[in-house]
Amino acid sequence: MEQTYRGYKNLDPGVKQQKAAPISILREVHNSAVGPLGIAIAQLTCLAFFFAMRSCEYSKTTANESSKRTKIIRIKNVRFFHHHRVLPHSSLLLAQADYVNITFEFQKNEERNESVGMYRVKKELYLCPVALAAKIVQRVRSYPGSDDPEERKINQFMTPDGKWKEITSASIRGKLRAAARVIGEATLGFKPEDIGTHSLRSGAAMALYLAKVPTLTIMIIGRWKSDAFLRYIRKQVAQFSQNLSTQMLQNENFYTVPDFQRALPSNGPPMANTIPTPDVQNEGGLPLFMGNHRPIALTCH
Predict the structure, then answer these.
(1) Architecture of 18-247 per CATH?
(2) Which part of the chain has CATH 1.10.443.10?
(3) Fewer CB within 10 Å: N-end or C-end of the chain?
(4) 271-296 pLDDT tens trace
(5) Are residues 208 and 217 in contact, defined by beta-carbon separation less than 8 angstroms?
(6) What is the pTM of this model?
(7) CA 287 to CA 270: how far, in whole Å?
């Protein structure tokens, strides 16, 4: 029974991982953005890439908000620096900041108040974590209301008729897949349905890795945990992430090898790791084993 169970398990296709999103998909998401809501989605998507965010950290998911351990980032969690000085969100120089730092108050790995920062990309403002964060903060804070603007979520959007709307993970997933459809499977190596919101997190890791960023640095930027010694690394030192955002843009695209398609026989899946059953017997009453091989008589010596 154990061998049979193992045979079925070996035939299981396993969990299908979302493909990593390259920079070209982000460019297409930005270039195809139409209208205030489309632009807001594009900005949020690109910012999530630079910080390797989980979808529940920057968008509304299907999970119950009150029961989630991870919380969506709020305006107060985003800080800007100019020449090592903190800029208030009301500052007219916010867009000229040279460094942005985001504090993740609650995470699914039970880490609290973990901060990660990124420097400005000088050549491409629409793919710059500082510029993207500044536009999001300024837009969300500009909405009228009696509530505290600093407590608003970064995925909030106000419609022209004054109604609040939260950008969802489904809308971001739709934009990513639409961009992948435009670029094409021949270039990317995968189909649009092979990517999702987690593709931003894995894409960020790939961008850093291809830029030859040390593995330890990638783990810290993406807040991946493995060994206890990681807690001794001082992530709040700004120079730790200097030039990382620029390095992440070095590889415009990368090709993903298509998934292996296992061909099954027409008469159904084979039973792996099972022992053939005896079919016939020889003259001495001993079984002959049949199958893809010639009959072999089992005799005693």
Answers:
(1) Orthogonal Bundle (1.10)
(2) 18-247
(3) C
(4) 555 444 445 455 455 544 444 545 44
(5) yes
(6) 0.74
(7) 22
